[in-house]
């Protein structure tokens, strides 16, 4: 008999196919556990798969599965998991570190270029017939390009490093702020404020957590300046969304590129109405190769757990 694995979050069926070939899956599809399954069905669950960065997996859910020993995150994020509750119950937590880093870095650079070069405005200018009609548009005035720009990367983990390497190819200067200094060929700043004062493009690649909730606030946005751009592929909680809306509306900054939002899947209507914002629906890691890599990590963690071995990809808090 194959081991049972609970699917805690809502996933497309295609993403679960490889897991179903090896394990018996109980798919809660994002519903509350006590609504999806009986207590008897949950009693024997020893491992579950979750989208660790979305939804909440707290002590109440863990208590419904008395034999739970492993929480495996599909992806790098684990900010939706109550890690203290898991540790108290001796539940191992694993994730997929770096599995989607290249794809997320790609979307960060895509958002940066689309925002700085006003790609959506230009696209609409052509599609709407204004270009053919030689209709003038203030949104089509020339702006500073990438060459010589100072790009600040907030967070120098796997994703941050790949973003930095990519943006350096655009003849930019690259600096960074992170909770520790790294052996990388980029200028280090001792605070986010100092980084924002220096750069005109701020790339947010920091891990979400209580220590950086709303770290990018009105003051940081003001420091970026009127020709500044902010790009967020991290978590919506890192930006004060109300402050961002105000800065964009008042043209205190030039624009933004966002793949993540405070309350997903809902982007504020005020954001969607602004012409100086480029929006994508949290698709940073949504490529075929990223999903294969994340699934590989999930399967490796599950295989080790059921064999009584340490997880090869445990969540590391240090």
Overview of this protein structure:
This protein has 318 residues and is an alpha/beta fold. Helix content is 35%, strand content 14%. It is built from 13 helices and 12 strands. The strands form 2 sheets. A 7-stranded parallel beta sheet has the order 8-7-6-9-10-11-12, with helices on both faces. Helix 6 (101-116) crosses helix 8 and helix 9 runs parallel beside helix 10 (218-224). The mean pLDDT is 94.
- In total, the number of strands is 12
The number of helical segments is 13
Strand order, largest beta sheet = 8-7-6-9-10-11-12
Main sheet, how many strands, which sense, barrel? 7 strands, parallel
Proportion in β-strands: 5-15%
What kind of assembly state do the chains in view correspond to? single chain
Basic shape: elongated
- Structural class determined from secondary elements: alpha/beta
Give the helix proportion (percent range).
Answer: 25-40%
User: What radius of gyration results from the CA coordinates?
Assistant: 22 Å
């Amino acid at each position: 008999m194959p081991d049972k694995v609970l699917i805690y979050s809502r996933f497309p069926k295609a993403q679960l196919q490889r897991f179903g070939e090896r394990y018996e899956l109980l798919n809660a599809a994002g519903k509350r556990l006590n609504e999806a399954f009986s207590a008897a069905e949950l009693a024997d669950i020893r491992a579950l798969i979750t989208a660790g960065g979305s939804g909440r997996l707290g002590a109440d859910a863990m208590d419904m599965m008395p034999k739970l020993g492993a929480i495996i995150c599909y992806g790098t994020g684990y900010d939706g998991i109550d890690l203290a509750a898991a540790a108290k119950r001796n539940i191992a937590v694993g994730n997929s570190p770096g599995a989607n880093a290249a794809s997320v870095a790609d979307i960060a650079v895509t958002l940066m270029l689309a925002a700085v070069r006003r790609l959506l405005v230009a696209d609409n200018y052509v599609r709407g017939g204004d270009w053919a009609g030689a209709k003038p548009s203030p949104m089509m005035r020339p702006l500073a390009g990438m060459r010589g720009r100072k790009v600040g990367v907030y967070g120098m983990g796997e994703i941050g490093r790949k973003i930095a390497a990519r943006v350096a190819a655009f003849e930019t200067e690259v600096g960074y702020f992170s909770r520790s200094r790294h052996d990388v060929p980029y200028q280090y700043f001792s605070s986010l404020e100092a980084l924002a004062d220096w750069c005109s493009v701020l790339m947010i690649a920091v891990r979400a957590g209580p220590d950086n909730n709303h770290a990018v606030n009105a003051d940081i946005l003001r420091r970026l300046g009127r020709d500044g751009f902010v790009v967020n592929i991290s978590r919506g909680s890192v930006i004060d969304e109300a402050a961002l809306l105000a800065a964009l509306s008042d043209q205190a900054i030039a624009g933004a590129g966002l793949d993540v939002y405070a309350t997903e899947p809902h982007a504020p209507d005020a954001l969607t109405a602004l012409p100086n914002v480029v929006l994508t629906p949290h698709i940073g890691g949504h490529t075929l190769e990223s999903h294969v890599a994340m699934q590989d990590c999930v399967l490796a963690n599950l295989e080790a757990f059921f064999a009584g071995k340490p997880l090869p990809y445990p969540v590391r808090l240090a």
